[in-house]
Amino acid sequence: MYQKIYQLLDVRGRVKTAVIMDGPFAGSKCIVADGKCIPCNLKQNASIDAADPDWERYEPQLAACEETGMHRIQDTDIFVEIYFKNPHLILLGGGHVSCPVAHIAKMLGFQVTVMDDREEFVTKERFPDADELVLGTFEELSEKIPGYENAYYVIVTRGHAGDSLCARQILRRPYAYLGMIGSRTKVKLTREKLLEEGFLAEQLDTIHAPIGLPIGGQMPEEIAVSIMAEIIQVKNQHYTAYSDEKVEQALRTGRQGVMMTIVKKSGSSPRGVGSKMFVDDEGNTYGSIGGGSVEYEAVRHASEVKDNEVQCYNLSVSDNRNLGMICGGKVSVFFERVLAQ
User: Fold this and answer.
1) What Cα–Cα distance (Å) separates residue 323 from each residue in 295, 328, 334?
2) What is the pLDDT of residue 41?
3) What is the DSSP letter of 241?
4) Strand arrangement of the beta sheet that strand 88-92 belongs to
5) What's the pLDDT tens digit per position in 123-136?
6) What is the DSSP code (8-state) at residue 150?
7) What pLDDT score was predicted for residue 87?
8) Model pLDDT, residue 308
9) Distance between alpha carbon 31 and the CA centroid of its chain, in Å?
10) Phi, psi torsion values for 316, nearest 5 degrees
11) Around Cβ 184, how many Cβ atoms within 10 Å?
12) How far apart (Å, rounded) are the C-alpha atoms in residues 24 and 280?
């Protein structure tokens, strides 16, 4: 299951999973891709009849989920995790604004691609921070730049004809952000052209145009700051699952054991929902769900886990039946067996 998640992350940059937390199908999990649920039977001791819930009935609501956390869907508690990895910034146009945008984006951890139809504009001298420089006409965008869900497109071509060519192709593929630079007149002309071609107003409303946060920037570097500020704002608008590299590496090497995930929290627990820790069958640990008493008790319990289950930990100091941590709060941890693949 996790091998598949990490493989999809490499290819798509975004993966959504869902696991049923209550009822007869508790512990059943799926990957949600392109609006469809791909079942992954994680229950080691489940009967054949109980192993396959009707995921199709949940698909519309799961497809709409944008937050990692517990969701109540049709009287069922379902924990949804949304993983993001390796955000890509694609600059369409290699003009004077693109240079500082590429530099700032690289500082912020983006993989940067620059495309232009002018050879002198896509050089390593102009874009020393770019991971990829693509020379080609904007009609070739779909051919030369593969689709990627965790992609942030910045259209900075030299005219509305190039803007339309780029926007038309991007609107037909998944993206995390689509922004277009230019005057209000230029943006208006591009929008009218796309509406005439049959694109819906709702689709065009997802375009950030004019691009960037309104901070009054005039210089290319100031405009670049406003563009990347807006991209970071969009990137962080939803709470998503943190993909711990140590956990990923342990699972990619085929280790088996128990995965622990915080699925619910209240109060001042040290780690957020979606935090993961993996304990292999040799007792080695990877990642963290917060350290302290919660982590100690969870690791100790992991050796007893035979099937998927949820354990609740009380961090309050109010009585003798809890973990006695001064921070207070409660944490629910989902335990799932992970077999070698």
Assistant:
1) 11, 9, 18
2) 64
3) B
4) 132-135, 111-116, 88-92, 151-155, 177-180
5) 999 999 999 999 99
6) T
7) 93
8) 87
9) 13
10) -75, 160
11) 9
12) 28
pLDDT tens per residue across span 233-263: 999 988 776 677 889 999 998 889 999 999 9
336, amino acid identity: E
Dist CA 179 CA 240 (whole Å): 22
CB contact at 8 A, 61 and 71: yes
Residue type, 150: N
Encoded tokens for 65: 């989920």
Is pLDDT at 270 greater than 90 in this prediction? no
- Decide: 36 and 52 in contact? Cβ < 8 Å: no
Question: Do the beta carbons of residue 39 and residue 28 sit within 8 Å?
Answer: yes
- Domain residue limits, the chain: 1-83, 88-235, 244-341
* CB-based burial label for 207 (10 Å; 0-12, 13-18, 19+): buried
Measured N-to-C along each axis, helices 160-170 and 184-196 cross at an angle, to the nearest 10 degrees, of: 50
DSSP 215: S
- The amino acid occupying position 311 is Q
Please give the class, per CATH, of domain 88-235: alpha beta
